[in-house]
Amino acid sequence: MPKGRIRIRLKSYDYRLIDETCQRIVDTAIRTGASIVGPVPLPTKQEVYVVDKASFIDKDAREHFGMKIHKRLIDIVNPTNQTIDSLMHLELAAGVEVEVKM
Predict the structure, then answer these.
(1) What is the distance between the alpha carbons of residues 7 and 47, in angstroms, rounded to a whole number?
(2) CA 40, 46, 49: angle at the middle one, nearest 5?
């Protein structure tokens, strides 16, 4: 039986997708008998890109495009072997980046 904790960091551009993925991970961990801390919402990173509409004359005519990166953190405390096996075989959405630390 493994000791310690598993820390899972999730990143996505869509908040609905990341919340659904968090719920799947939490349900799987609870079903296998592990304790859960989270999901903890981390600060959303917002990037804004400014593009000129015209090349030379209309310097004041600009368009703003934005992108938000949503992040969540889940800690699984005292995982069992069944928890690790279930998380390895869990199918998640394509738009979510998952980083696991033991």
Answers:
(1) 26
(2) 165
Q: Specify burial of residue 93 (Cβ count, 10 A radius: 0-12, 13-18, 19+).
A: middle
Statement: the pTM of the whole predicted model exceeds 0.85: no
* pLDDT, position 79: 85
Residue listed under structure tokens 């593009």: 51
φ, ψ of residue 16 in degrees (nearest 5): -70, -40
What is d(CA 97, CA 69) in angstroms, rounded to the nearest whole number?
A: 11
Question: Using CA atoms, how far apart are residues 49 and 93, in angstroms rounded to an integer?
Answer: 27
Secondary structure of 38-64 in the HEC alphabet? EEEEEEEEEEEEEEECCCCCCCCCEEE
